[in-house]
Amino acid sequence: MVSFDVMMGVFWLVCGIIILIPALFISFGGRPDLHVHYDDSVDPTYVSRRAGTTALLMGLVTIGYAVLQFTYGYHPLALGGLLVTLFILSTLTKRFAKGWGWQPETEPDQISDSQPEPESESTPE
User: Fold this and answer.
1) Are 52 and 23 in contact (CB under 8 A)?
2) Closest C-alpha among 41, 56, 37 to residue 96
3) Among candidate residues 81, 104, 101, the one with its CA nearest the CA of residue 93
4) Is the pLDDT of residue 107 over 50?
5) Count of other CB atoms within 10 angstroms of residue 73
6) What residue spans define the domains of the chain?
7) Under 8 Å CB-to-CB from 5, ≥6 apart: which residues?
8) What pLDDT band is residue 60 in, cutting at 50, 70 and 90?
9) What is the pTM (predicted TM-score) of this model?
10) For the residues of 15-40, what is the DSSP string, one character each?
């Protein structure tokens, strides 16, 4: 008979691998369109960097919990910490995919057009 801790460890390990697969494509493959909340108006490199890294962290935390489950067994506080961490990281990755914190870069000619022109000093004749 297989122990409960081993079965749950395998479950969390598989979940972590499932999280890591699209996270690797998003962060290293430059495929932010794989994120379900990706907004096309946001810079794809920004989403790949921020949302992909956050998703990688989610997968690694889940795999870390699986190793803890294999090694030490079930701890309710550790499971609660995992669930809270996954909730916070999933909220962050959703916000990053929607463009939270992204500043669109302005074109150089837009910067010069938006600045007031210096007043010329006129001399009375």
Assistant:
1) yes
2) 37
3) 101
4) no
5) 14
6) 4-100
7) 69, 70, 73, 74
8) very high
9) 0.74
10) HHHHHHHHHHHHHTS--GGGSTT--T
